[in-house]
Amino acid sequence: MIVDTLKVFVTVAEQRNFSRAAEMLNLSQPGVSQHIRNLENEFGVQLMHRSSKQVKMTDAGQILYKQAKQMLSLYESAKEDIHLLRHEVTGSLKIGASFTIGEYILPCLLAQFVNQYPQVDIQVTIANTEEIAQAVHSNELDVGLVEGHVEYSEIQVQPPFMEDEMLLVSSVVHPLHTLRTVEPHMLQDQVWVFRESGSGTRAYSDQFIQDTALRVNRSFVFNSSQGVKEAVIAGLGIAMLSRWVIHKELELGELHHIQVKGKRFTRDFHVLQEPKSLGTMAVKMFIQKIRELEQ
């Protein structure tokens, strides 16, 4: 069936590797290669440049990839509409989430969703906000859940589904831990622990430092909120983190909340979608489940 061949082609294009694609599709590598050769013979052009390290798309391959994604989306939509005649929600759902959402909110949400719609095949990608936005824009993900501001004008950013409180924290032996509240100027020349660039948490921290005109004495960068949290507990510096990430450590007395006088720090969690995406029933039901968090 041509759909199967297109699925193989899209998987190879996205993985840029025949072996990884074969493993994901539960096929042999020669079988994957045969699907690609069949497509190239049908169109009379080379679709991919093969090398031992990586697969690179030709111009023709790029055109087919874009159209194949739409054709597969149409196929999934038709299949789901047919299943809906029997009151079933089926198909696949590719979800991307930034680290805070993906590690602390999404698991519980997915457990509820899967219990309600057990026939939906779900794949989850957790990365920083910038990477999730890029994946949604390139149609590698059906929906993205991110925090903070998204720069892509081509992406549909839906209204916030949740407000997140950001807290400035230190270790329980940091000099600031003895103070009930601090004025912004008391945060001058501190050592900071940051997330990497592209992270929504990093963007929020950078904006706070810019708005309060703080000088940073030294900084350390980690590519996960868990790493930042552990570094702060160990006394490496101070950091701005979501309450979702640190609420247990605060309750256990492992972290100190540095309260800035007269300030409360919040940001919004958003849903991202590619505006030209058809939006299968599985996607629609998942977004509906997200919206229940607002209530």
TrEMBL record:
Domain HTH lysR-type: 1-58
Pfam families reported in the protein's UniProt record: HTH_1, LysR_substrate
Record-level Gene Ontology MF annotations: DNA-binding transcription factor activity; transcription cis-regulatory region binding
Keyword annotations from UniProtKB, A to Z: DNA-binding, Transcription, Transcription regulation
Cross-referenced CDD domains: PBP2_CysL_like
Family: Belongs to the LysR transcriptional regulatory family.
Protein name: LysR family transcriptional regulator
Lineage, highest ranks first: Bacteria, Bacillati, Bacillota, Bacilli, Bacillales
